[in-house]
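Retry 2 of 3 after timeout on previous attempt. Resubmitting structure tokens to design endpoint.
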């Protein structure tokens, strides 16, 4: 990483995903719940890294343009969804403290 002049590139998301995958696996003493979701997340990160590396061979502007497009599409999809979740939370009254 020092070659790219990125001194402290964070890998928290990938590390935590891999740690959770290992800890919750039957080999690690877990029940295996969420393994397929975590595996899919790791595969998606790997595909994204490969796609980004290949796009850098084409042109930097293409990489930045695609990243901006994906950011806008993500915003268009998830902002309305977050608003509907917030609306549902406002409409539901909270449970009393000792009801469980």
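Retry 2 succeeded. Sequence:
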């Amino acid at each position: 990483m020092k070659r790219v002049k990125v001194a402290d590139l964070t890998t928290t998301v990938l590390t935590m995903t891999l740690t959770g995958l290992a800890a919750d696996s039957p080999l690690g003493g877990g029940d295996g719940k969420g393994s397929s979701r975590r595996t899919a997340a790791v595969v998606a990160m790997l595909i994204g890294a490969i796609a980004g590396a290949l796009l850098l061979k084409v042109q930097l502007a293409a990489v930045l343009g695609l990243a901006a497009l994906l950011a806008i599409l993500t915003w268009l999809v998830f902002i309305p969804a977050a608003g509907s979740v917030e609306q549902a939370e406002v409409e539901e009254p909270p449970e009393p403290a000792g009801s469980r």
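Attempt log closed. Residues 1-58 form one domain.
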